[in-house]
Amino acid sequence: MKYVIIGNGPAAVSCVDGIRSVDNEGSITILSKEAHPAYFRPLISYYLEGKSKEENIYCRRADFYQKNHVETVLGEAVAIDKENRIVALNSGENIAYDRLCICSGSSPFVPPMKGLETVEKKFTFLTIDDSFALEQAVDKNSRVLIIGAGLIGLKCAEGLRDRAGKVTVCDLAPRVLSSILDDECAMVVQKHLENCGIAFSLANTADHFNGNTAYMKDGSVIDFDVLVLALGVRPNIGLFKDAGGECDRAIIVGNDMKTSIDDIYAAGDCVEQYDISFGNKRIMALLPNANIGGYTAGVNMAGGKALFDNAVPMNSIGFWGLHIMTAGSYANDGSAQMTEIKDESGIKRFFIKDHKLNGFMIIGDVKSAGIFTNLLRNQTDLSDMDFEALIKSPNLLPFGENYRRKTLRGVV
Amino acid sequence: MKRVYVNEEWCLGCHLCEYNCAFSNSGIKDMVKALKGKKITPRIHVEDDGKIHYAVSCRHCEDPLCIKGCISGALSKDENGVVAIDHDKCVGCLTCMLLCPYGSITTDENETVLKCELCMQNGGIPACVQGCPNRAIVFEEVEE
Q: Which of A6, A123, A226, A255 is the most exposed place for a label (fewest CB within 10 A)?
């Protein structure tokens, strides 16, 4: 059996683990655009902050590829011939496969912006090479302007604060982390970041640039030395789409990580799969899902049986001591009932739908939040549980003695 | 593998396991110096509603979600099945805390993650078990 994996990130190495859990014989080839072994992408900001050393960012030990008999080929896949089961590389080389897994990740999205070509020092923030480049470009006098107050933009701001003179973040959205927080929670996070020295210009973005000056939508002007474009990402799906595969905004996969094309699987940031909290297929480009999805794909490619049938979006993110955890869906469309606790330790919001936890948002006191993630992922019926007590003090008491005997007295 | 298991019906709720854990992991030889006047950050905790009490620590799951979620590769399973943490790699993102179904992950004042490693570095017999006055916590092999 010839396994080929396009991409070399967390989903790809988890796919190798999945394949090798079933098949120790087949050959595995990884096709990679980046010259680095698989690394944890979220660490690129911690590298800038000085919390992660370069040698510690890699997903697996140095001997991982050799030990698992994985051949890595540096090059960009440019076409998939599904009839003949061949992946063509930009080098002209053709790689044959029996089972293919696409773990091609995503790319920064940069919309056309007037005058952007006149900006000398501009960066996106998605790869470790972006971090190396920013490290060179930014010094103690640099004024950094980051466009985008999402997860990537804010993590970049945290990574750069102590390296730069000033960091300003702007976003067209009126709040920070607009994809995962509501107005009130976002304000708590924004205030904290402001106290930590980050400046914001929200509900506002750059209209056009001229050299080191950004002319903002509201008429104001921001002078900067370094520009970071963190407007979001787009899944890398071109290859698969061109081969006639079924895509929406990303590659559509089932719970077994199979795509619409025979013997082609996909996992990680380039896929859209069923989200049990929203009740439809969505992109959940988050590391835990990449690892679980990649492993699931690998097992199935090798003829085993695995399902990833409880995917939900889940985020744990912190900035200088303030922690934020969110999971599931919390659309305020009236279909879910909200229960909340607000006190000096922060805000906790839980969204209950049909007696099941459908999503939550916790700012501040995040202790034992995994108990809620577990209720969400397993769609546990809360009818017989004292949920009010649980949110005040997350512990295993409301789960009852049988559950505790099973989990604390047995192997899980 | 041997793990820490809890006999809820025998737990007295004395919290000694928490103190023994904090002492054992402090690296300080004298218990008074290690604990007196300090806010302890044990890797085991007792849950209590006045009637029921029992200790909770890492279950060293067969297929640990914390490892699947770890964004830095700090968490891994060693050859004995122990879920261990590399403090040099941990960046304190707490994704493991978001994923642990049992609330077994905690942090210290520096915000790096602390979890039970079965006292592998402290002589191999968990201090919580050694100090439990009523055998409410045991270290043994259980059939899967």
A: A255
